[in-house]
Amino acid sequence: MKKRLAKLIATGLLILVPAVCSADFQSGNELYSYCTDTAAVADTYCIGYIEGIADTMRHDNNQVCGELYHVTGTQVKDITVQFLQQHPEQRQYAAESLVRLAMSAAFPCR
Predict the structure, then answer these.
(1) Which of 32, 41, 52, 75 is the most buried (most CB within 10 A)?
(2) What does pLDDT average to over the chain?
(3) Are 60 and 104 in contact (CB under 8 A)?
(4) What is the distance between the alpha carbons of residues 13 and 10, in angstroms, rounded to a whole number?
(5) Three-state SS at 94
(6) Confidence (pLDDT) at 99
(7) Thinking of the domain 25-106, which architecture would CATH place it in?
(8) How far is the C-alpha of 52 from the C-alpha of 30, rounded, in Å?
(9) CA distance to 20, 35, 66, 82, 100, per residue, from 63 (Å)
(10) Does the model's pTM come out above 0.85?
């Protein structure tokens, strides 16, 4: 009985996984909205999102140079917001790609 219940629960959880993992990509417009919102929750989301991408870039070879290792969350947010403000024609693209472009432009390899 316990094994059957465990299988039933596992099956139920597997059904939920695609719904959780298949979220649409966030656009630059959505990220810009979060990053320019004055609410603490939006600011925390913005910085966390951007830091996650910056952390990934730090571990990807040939993505950015060493300067990215020494910046704060607020700095990467400022760099991204500035990039989004200067390139409103690109905000419909995936936020992840735009953050990567912003970081690469701010920290080019010499």
Answers:
(1) 32
(2) 80
(3) no
(4) 5
(5) strand
(6) 95
(7) Orthogonal Bundle (1.10)
(8) 16
(9) 28, 23, 10, 20, 8
(10) no
